[in-house]
Design brief:
By secondary structure, this protein is of the alpha/beta class. It has 12 helices and 8 strands.
Length: about 350
């Protein structure tokens, strides 16, 4: 850190994101002392035993001594945390968050004048401190929103660069629209279609394409609720596209009639063969239809620079559309009754 020395940092929430941030801060020796607050005392003890954090901390009058406070807890806890912090902080204390929603209630933002919203475009289908990684943010982007203090944002940018990341700036409303499409909708669709996931197929490419199905519903339910309007807008576009594809499948003749997408979305897997699709083909093909319908949403091309690994893995299954169409047609015809059964159940 060139322009600002952090003596004490407090991280509120020591899960995957908060734990990874703490490890990155420790790895780069950015702060002299790191303290943490989390309801999971096992996470605190693990971090303390690993010498990632120095000790546990409460939100009390001594919190004014911290140079940086990082909010990395679930979004549903923000009102309580903001209110507690506001009772003890002054305008000097720098506070950032690492959440996935940025268009907060203005009443919350007014509670902490020196607040900067940050969103690392990084994550995992795993959760909790035990899955945290000091390199989680390396080579990734942070989105910066909601700030008033130019000097404070310079400090935040310096920290981001120090841990091996880069940054971009967006308005809070634009951020939430973009990530509703590139992050929240893929996760929502993965949950929605999880009952149609392959159970027998052990191919690594296929397993990775379905990894979002295993994400934490508890964490994501808050995100869906807080970004409901943007999510609903893009879901309606998806639903229209999916309905059209389902109608085409009812009069199936060849996969060429609907298995089309922009090649920019194709993540090639040279190891994937048509025979790799045979276990659970109906489930895999159903997800392919979901992904192709998603990729037809208008604004996706405009927002590609904001996509992360979740988007990449979710859409990777589109590569199947590039396999030999005669072989695909044979598998589709063989499994068409079951595929149509899945579609009927989805539209119930």
């Amino acid at each position: 850190m060139k322009n600002f020395k952090i003596k004490k940092i407090l991280i509120i929430g020591l899960g995957l994101i908060g734990g990874s941030f703490a490890k990155a801060i420790r790895e780069k020796n950015i702060a002299q002392q790191i303290f943490a607050l989390d309801q999971d005392l096992e996470a605190i003890n693990n971090a303390r035993n690993q010498k990632i954090v120095d000790d546990f901390c409460l939100i009390d009058s001594q919190i004014k001594d911290y140079d940086l406070i990082v909010i990395a807890c679930p979004l549903k806890n923000y009102p309580q945390i903001f209110t507690q912090l506001a009772n003890h902080l002054d305008n000097k204390n720098l506070v950032i968050d690492l959440g996935s929603i940025k268009n907060f209630d203005n009443k919350l933002l007014k509670l902490i004048p020196n607040f900067i919203g940050c969103h690392p475009i990084a994550g995992s289908d795993q959760s909790g401190y035990l899955n945290s990684d000091c390199n989680l943010f390396f080579g990734k982007k942070f989105v910066i929103c909601n700030y008033n203090n130019i000097d404070s944002v310079k400090i935040v940018k310096e920290i981001i660069i120090e841990i091996g990341s880069s940054f971009i700036e967006l308005s809070a409303s634009k951020h939430d629209e973009i990530f509703a499409l590139t992050s929240h909708l893929p996760q929502f669709l993965s949950f929605l279609c999880a009952e149609f996931s392959p159970k027998k197929n052990k191919n690594e490419f296929i397993k990775k394409a379905f990894r979002l199905d295993k994400s934490s519903p508890e964490i994501w339910s808050d995100i869906f609720k807080l970004n409901e309007k943007n999510l609903e807008k893009f879901y309606q576009q998806f639903f229209t596209n999916f309905t059209n594809i389902a109608k085409q499948l009812k009069s199936f003749s060849t996969s060429k009639q609907f298995l089309t997408t922009n090649n920019i979305f194709i993540k090639e897997s040279k190891a994937l063969k048509i025979t790799d699709l045979e276990p659970d083909f109906s489930q895999i093909f159903f997800r392919l239809l979901v992904v192709l319908s998603y990729l037809k949403i208008d604004k996706i091309n405009d927002y590609l620079e904001y996509t992360g690994s979740g988007f990449a893995d979710f859409t990777s299954i589109a590569f199947i559309s590039q396999l030999n169409h005669l072989d695909l047609d044979s598998l589709i015809k063989k499994n068409l009754p079951e595929i149509n059964k899945f579609l009927d159940k989805f539209f119930e």
